Each structure stands twice: as structure tokens, then as C-alpha cells.
């Protein structure tokens, strides 16, 4: 029997009011972090953060739309022709463009076994739900 899983992104369980699809858990991936970030047009309230504490590096791939990633004081264009890696200590913040943006975010900590954050687990409470 073949070992694979196919899921439609729009049918995946989500958190943060639909802005983060729990792709890793939906597909049964356990060795690295993987989420889909969906932001509406011209959205600038994505939280700025870094991964200094965990040492996690991230890679972002645009699946649809476009925008920018604020990395420290710099802004980097996000579009379907580029892949972006951000190191653990760099602050990052996604800002969507006029079409919105759908990003595939991949993450892991070099040399360490991946430990999934609770919010990415299926059935976990949405931190933004009231």
C-alpha cells in the first residue's frame, strides 16, 4: 500500500481565525514544521516575531498572491518566483499585497528533532477564538 496523504488546503483545520492552516498535522508530517498562512488583501497585522528561543529557521514559498516580508528593518518582496529563508534570530512579519497572500511556511531547528507547537495540533483551541 502506498504511503501518501492528499488534502485540499481550504478543507484543512485552521487556527488564528482561518489565517493558519494546520497543514503539518493534516498531512501527518512529524519531522518538520509546515503550515499554510492565508492573509487577506493588504493585511499588515501579522505578528512580528523571531525564533531565537527555539533556533528554528523558516522557509517561505508563495502559493498564491504576493506581498512582502519585513525582516528587521528590511522589506523583501514575496512572489511566486522566489523562495525566502529567514534565520532564527531575525524578526519577521508578513504583509500581504492587494491580492492577499497564501504562503507555505516550512520550519525546523538544525540538528534537533522537531517538536510541534501545541497550536499546530489538530483539535487545538484557536488562540483568537472568543
Q: Would you give an account of this structure?
A:
By secondary structure, this protein is mostly beta strands. It has one helix and seven strands, in the order E-E-H-E-E-E-E-E. The chain has one helix at 23-27; strands at residues 14-15, 20-21, 33-39, 57-71, 74-78, 83-86, 92-108. Strands 1, 2, 3, 4, 5, 6 and 7 form a seven-stranded antiparallel sheet that branches. The chain is globular, with a radius of gyration of 15 Å. The termini are far apart.
Beta-strand portion reads 35-45%
| Tally of DSSP helical segments | 1
What best-fitting shape do the alpha-carbon axes yield? globular
What is the averaged pLDDT score?
Answer: 93
Structural class, please? mainly beta
User: What is the distance, rounded to the nearest whole angstrom, between the alpha carbons of the first and last residues?
Assistant: 43 Å
Helical residues, percent = under 10%
Question: H/E series, N to C?
Answer: EEHEEEEE
Overall number of strands: 7
Low-confidence stretches: none
Largest sheet geometry: 7 strands, antiparallel
Q: What is the radius of gyration computed over CA atoms, rounded to a whole number of angstroms?
A: 15 Å
Keywords:
130 residues; mainly beta; 4% helix; 40% strand; globular
Summarize the helices and strands and which ones pair or pack:
Layout: E1 14-15, E2 20-21, H1 23-27, E3 33-39, E4 57-71, E5 74-78, E6 83-86, E7 92-108
Antiparallel strand pairs: 1-2, 2-3, 3-7, 4-5, 4-6, 4-7
Amino acid at each position: 500500500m502506498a504511503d501518501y496523504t492528499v488534502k485540499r488546503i481550504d478543507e484543512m483545520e485552521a487556527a488564528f481565525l482561518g489565517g493558519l492552516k494546520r497543514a503539518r498535522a493534516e498531512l501527518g508530517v512529524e519531522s518538520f514544521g509546515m503550515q499554510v498562512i492565508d492573509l487577506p488583501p493588504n493585511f499588515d497585522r501579522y505578528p512580528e516575531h523571531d525564533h531565537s528561543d527555539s533556533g528554528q529557521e523558516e522557509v517561505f514559498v508563495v502559493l498564491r498572491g504576493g506581498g512582502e516580508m519585513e525582516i528587521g528593518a528590511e522589506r523583501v518582496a514575496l512572489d511566486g518566483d522566489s523562495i525566502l529563508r529567514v534565520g532564527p534570530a531575525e524578526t519577521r512579519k508578513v504583509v500581504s499585497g492587494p491580492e492577499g497572500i497564501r504562503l507555505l511556511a516550512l520550519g525546523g531547528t538544525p540538528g534537533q528533532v522537531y517538536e510541534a507547537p501545541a497550536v499546530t495540533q489538530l483539535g487545538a483551541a484557536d488562540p483568537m477564538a472568543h
